[in-house]
Design a protein that fits this description.
By secondary structure, the protein is of the alpha/beta class. It contains 15 helices and 15 strands. The two termini are about 15 Å apart. Bound molecules: 3-phosphoglyceric acid (3PG). 3-phosphoglyceric acid (3PG) binds next to loops.
């Protein structure tokens, strides 16, 4: 693996794969610019070293053709603001016009290519598409950790055709914290997992059974753990088809000496929209016509007790339906507790990340990953395609 700092960027065109896939509301306003902010240091470094960064990214999931609502226009504006320099937004990511635009720029300027997913070739990892992207530059830098689990052309295809390839600064930081948190953790290592579905986290749990000392479960996925053991969960969401797997997993965690913590009480209500009807009940007493929408106060205390001695805490997924005020306390309590923890705190992106930023407590965490699916894939122990393409070995 080549170190970014060792590359001579002077006078070179540098294709930077960033993940600028940020949430944008109906008015075209970016609601969380964290990923754009995190991609700035690498672009700045290339500029400072005399290179011409040609930034490329996907945004959303357009079906392989241009769609105005997935244009990178709002992202270009935000990037200009953060870099304090003008950016040339190319009308496409490949083609003669783009080649012309790139040729007309010199070192010190920044080009942003239009959404990679406006071409089918990106997701299909089409060789010709990758060659065309690669032909725009001398050097390829991959800083898109959040897309590192995708075998797309801009991730695994392009570096086959560029002369020099390296991971960006953000990619380096993500790897450094993953190492500290899950490969060489200070113990006890406690993993907090939440979110709606066990099915999306089952492989991560299986992999963590060998690594973690404690696993703390919240969110609707905890419902499946309890329902599988015979608890009556009323109208709560759970995945019945996974009961046998969950029972097997509970056994595996126990055999491998990993302690499992499940909710002892819940905030229940008739539905997500029924404000004012919520109340706390023990896990054994969920009424048949109500659903569990957050962990309860006793569970928050239990989890804080479980995490007290942790030297390393890795968190992924909210404790309840935190977007709705009456069901946010389990998640906000967890954020406040971890913000004051003395252990190393690493959070895996997505929903949890948004909740922390809303509370303006991001600076109290050691690291908040920009990856959602990519972070989960690392937790599962899956080799990431981007790492393979760059020759990065995790150890
Ligand atoms: C993400 O938001 O997790 C990344 O940008 C990857 O996006 P994708 O799931 O659409 O590939």
């Amino acid at each position: 693996m080549v170190d970014l700092q060792s590359i001579n960027f002077s006078g070179k065109k540098v294709l930077v794969r960033a993940d600028l896939n940020v949430p944008i509301d109906e008015d075209g306003k970016i609601t969380d610019d964290n990923r754009i902010r995190q991609s700035v240091p690498t672009i700045k470094l290339i500029l400072e070293k005399g290179g011409l960064p040609i930034v490329m990214s996907h945004l959303g999931r357009p079906g392989g053709k241009p769609e105005a609502k997935f244009s990178l226009k709002p992202v270009a504006k935000k990037l200009e603001e953060l870099l304090k320099t003008d950016i040339v937004l190319a009308p496409d990511c490949i083609g003669p016009k783009v080649t012309e635009i790139v040729k007309a720029q010199s070192a010190g300027q920044v080009v942003l290519l239009e959404n990679l997913r406006f071409h089918k070739g990106e997701k299909e990892n089409n060789e010709q598409f990758a060659r065309e992207l690669a032909s725009l530059a001398d050097v390829y830098v991959n800083d898109a950790f959040a897309a590192a689990h995708r075998s797309h052309a801009s991730i695994v295809g392009v570096p086959k055709f560029t002369k020099e390839n390296a991971p960006g600064l953000l990619m380096g930081k993500e790897i450094e914290y993953f190492r500290k948190a899950l490969l060489k953790p200070e113990r006890p290592l406690c993993v907090v997992l939440g979110g709606a579905k066990v099915s999306t986290k089952l492989n991560a749990l299986l992999n963590l059974a060998d690594k973690a000392d404690k696993v703390v479960v919240g969110g609707a996925m905890a419902n499946t753990f309890l329902a599988a053991q015979g608890f009556q969960m009323g109208r709560s969401l759970y995945e019945q088809g996974l009961f046998p797997k969950v029972i097997e997993l509970i056994g595996q965690l126990a055999r491998r000496g990993c302690q499992l913590y499940l909710p002892v009480d819940f905030i229940v209500a008739p539905s997500l929209t029924s404000v004012g009807l919520e109340r706390a009940v023990p896990a054994q007493e969920i009424p048949a016509d109500l659903m569990a929408l957050d962990i309860g106060p006793a569970t928050s205390l239990l989890y804080q007790e479980a995490l007290k001695t942790a030297q390393t805490i890795v968190w992924n997924g909210p404790m309840g339906a935190f977007e709705k005020e009456p069901f946010s306390k389990g998640t906000t309590d967890m954020i406040e507790y971890l913000a004051s923890s003395h252990g190393l705190t690493v959070v895996g992106g997505g929903d949890t990340d948004a909740a922390i930023h809303q509370m303006e407590l991001g600076h109290k965490f050691d690291y908040i990953s920009t990856g959602g699916g990519a972070f989960l894939a690392l937790m599962e122990g899956v080799p990431l395609p981007a790492f393979r393409a760059l020759g990065i070995e995790l150890q």
